Amino acid sequence: MRAPLVVGLTLTVALAACGQSKTSGTTFLSINTATISQGSFKPSIKAISPLESTTNVTLSPETDGRVIKKLVKEGDQVQAGQVILVLDNTQQSAQLDASKSQARYDKVNAERYQFLYEQGAASAKRRDAYATKAITSRDQAIADKANLNYKFVRSPINGVIGDLDTVKIGDYVKTGDVITGIVDNSTLWTLMEIPASQGSQVKVGQPVQLASQSTPPVTGEGTITFVSPYYSIPKAGNPPNTLMVKAVFPNLTGQLKTGQYVASEIITGSSEQLAVPVQAVMMQAQQPFVYEVVPISKALPTIKRSPNTTAKALKKLEKLPGNTPIVLQTKVQLGDLQNNLYPVISGLKAGAKVAISNTSRLRSGMPVNVSAGAN
């Protein structure tokens, strides 16, 4: 139920000066109004969360060796399979050349003895021996080629090269040493820790809007792809437990990066509710209120019941025409602000008019002049 707060009315309050029109010789304050109507709201959960690439690797050599070439520099865009570093491979190259020569020689011999066997000039045992030797030589050449390839450190993914200054020409690197990182920022995750009290509102498939903390902010939109099946267990002295939620989104501008913190907002639903403009809302002892504009004929019964109303002020108001606009301080219960509108939970009805200008100069029970063209 709406509960208007009518404060004490005095002549100076009820009949304040500084307006345009006059009634009974008294000038009233001019205001603009807004009509309470339906607005679209999207309940959401907000979090500050880090970004993480969906594809990133640490690059390490698969064999020991000395660096003889660096074919890229940090910050370069590379493709999967592209050579990043070349290690000394003189011995491996020579070994491969020898293996390939031996494989060609043994293949020719195997083909020759196959022909001789078909002509009856060689035994099956001798033919099979040369065929086996050709297969062995071929496999050795394949193995030597693989060993040589290990000397070419390649990118396993498309992405951007990270810090490569730690490795220089002439450095000796070992198997497993971290050379650099490669990150593909084209698609990112945002990893959100949601309070347990809001965890039940989150579902896979819900949209997530995010904005960087830069000026101007870089924005993006993604979708929740993962909701943890369990809550994190808080440690002593830490905040209450939280739920890990992961959303994936395309980094269309390429400006967002792994490790960056962004403001994330999970859209948990949508609804149509009565809405009041932010300009109309004021606070008194942490209680939001608005100044509702009603005809004086409608407001007088409430004003008369107020113990703070003086006879002199009431008499002044009763002399005014019944259609004279008057403001009443009205308590409201509101939801979270969205797009400069508050959803109205209680306190106002559809079609009600509220003041949206000069609100700091208004007092409950004050006659006003509603400006022409006001909603």
Structural class: alpha+beta
What is the CATH architecture descriptor of the largest domain?
Beta Barrel
Q: Please tell me the total number of domains.
A: 3
Query: What is the distance, rounded to the nearest whole angstrom, between the alpha carbons of the first and last residues?
Result: 24 Å
Q: Kindly state the mean pLDDT as a whole number?
A: 87
Low-confidence stretches: 1-25
Helix amount: 10-25%
| Estimated share of beta-strand residues | 35-45%
**Net shape:** rod-shaped
Strands, count = 26
* Name of the CATH first level of the largest domain: Mainly Beta
- The radius of gyration computed from the alpha-carbon positions, rounded to a whole number of angstroms, is 39 Å
CATH fold-level topology of the largest domain: conserved putative lor/sdh protein from methanococcus maripaludis s2 fold
Profile the largest sheet: 8 strands, mixed
Number of helices: 5
